[in-house]
Amino acid sequence: MTTTERPVRRDFAQRLRAETRAEHGRAHAQPYVRALLAGQLGAEDFAMLLAQHYFAYAVLEAAAEHMRSDLVAGPFVSDRLRRLPALEADLQHYFGRGWRRKVAPSAATEEYLARMREICFDWPGGFVAHHYTRYLADLSGGQAIRAIMGRSMDRSDGAGFAFLTFEQIPNGPRFKDAYRTLLDTVGWSAAEEDRIVAEVKRAYAHNTRVLAELSYLLIPRQR
Fold first, then answer.
1. What is the 3-state secondary structure (H, E, C) of the chain?
2. What pTM was estimated for this model as a whole?
3. Distance of alpha carbon 118 from its chain centroid, rounded?
4. At residue 189, what are phi and psi to the nearest 5 degrees?
5. Tell me, which fold does domain 12-222 have in CATH?
6. Which residues are CB-contacts of 44 (< 8 A; sequence separation ≥ 6)?
7. 114: Cβ contacts below 8 Å, ≥ 6 apart
8. Residue 132 labelled as part of a binding site
9. I need a labelling partner for 159 at 20 to 30 A (CA). Which of 119, 130, 142, 144 fits?
10. Can you give the pLDDT at residue 144?
């Protein structure tokens, strides 16, 4: 892929959103997500999700460091988005100082990690696909989920919600507009755009399987 194979395309971000809407809907249809958005989860349930996110972000942010100087992927890398320190703080809050011994990736998360390791360090478009899927989802839904969980857990001090608090991004909509502009102005070839759309769909599928596993673990506590 080169950035000069065709004229710059101005609607790739819109295309990504439109062509992955079904995958996004399947993720949101998982019982775990429905319970989360309905304010039915407790601290233990929420911590299970954070633990799986921790392993995903560990790989993704290692890939970000690797891709930081890449001409295509590098502009998407932003320290303002980093979630790993926040996840570590939250996991210590929920599990205590020995939290690293208490969390492990699920089977679905292991598959997700394997895919990111396979492509995110060598294929700039693949890195962007997973970066887009993970960060924009958490930036978009973070504030709403934080408010819901704060009410359901009766917490107003923000403790345990560092992951959902993007302190370095005070204006989420403006940041997302700038991110979408990057997507629209890279100048990928038509074939590369197709590959990226397919990889975003695959990233959503991995996330949906992670959520499905969390849904299964949640069932006994909701009986």
1. CCCCCCCCCCCHHHHHHHHCHHHHHHHHCCHHHHHHHCCCCCHHHHHHHHHHHHHHHHHHHHHHHHHCCCCCCHHHCCHHHCCHHHHHHHHHHHHCCCHHHCCCCCHHHHHHHHHHHHHCCCCHHHHHHHHHHHHHHHHHHHHHHHHHHHHHCCCCCCCCCHHHCCCCCCCHHHHHHHHHHHHHHCCCCHHHHHHHHHHHHHHHHHHHHHHHHHHHHHHHHHC
2. 0.91
3. 17
4. -70, 165
5. Heme Oxygenase; Chain A (1.20.910)
6. 94, 221
7. none
8. yes
9. 130
10. 85
Give the span between the Cα atoms of 53 and 134, in whole angstroms.
Answer: 9
195 among annotated binding-site residues: no
**Amino acid in position 139:** L
- Asked whether residue 180 is marked as a ligand-binding residue, the answer is yes
Residue 57, annotated as binding a ligand: no
Retrieve residue 185's tokens.
């102005």
From the first residue on, what is the mean pLDDT of each consecutive set of 10 residues in the chain (223 residues)? 48 95 94 93 94 98 98 97 97 96 97 98 98 94 85 78 93 95 95 97 97 84 50
Q: According to the model, what pLDDT value does residue 191 have?
A: 96
Identity (one letter) of the amino acid at 82?
R
